Amino acid sequence: MLKRGGNIMLKPLNNHVVLEVVEVELTTASGIILSREAAKPSHSEGVILAVGEGRILDNGQRLPLDVMVGQRVIYNGFGGTKVNHQGKDLVIVSSEDILAIVE
């Protein structure tokens, strides 16, 4: 559950995760400036702000998620639902769309 000042902002359901989008660098290490289209990867990075309680299995048990709040992750850039909530660019994705944890 994502909270700010005691007020609940967004609570993802089941196996969904709320991510804050991390902007892609538009300048390479050598100083070359890329256009937004050239810099746009097929995946995106984000920081987890909230996680759901997990997927419900056929037997009724809940399978918890493998990720937690605060982790930086790479997710499928074509998946999820983009939202702007309280001035922040967020995306809500299924846990299956998370490809890796950045350590």
Automatic annotation (TrEMBL):
Heptamer of 7 subunits arranged in a ring. Interacts with the chaperonin GroEL. Keywords: Chaperone, Cytoplasm. It comes from Turicibacter sanguinis PC909. Pfam families: Cpn10. SMART domains: Cpn10 (SM00883). The keyword Chaperone applies. Belongs to the GroES chaperonin family. Together with the chaperonin GroEL, plays an essential role in assisting protein folding. The GroEL-GroES system forms a nano-cage that allows encapsulation of the non-native substrate proteins and provides a physical environment optimized to promote and accelerate protein folding. GroES binds to the apical surface of the GroEL ring, thereby capping the opening of the GroEL channel. It is found in: Cytoplasm. This is Co-chaperonin GroES.
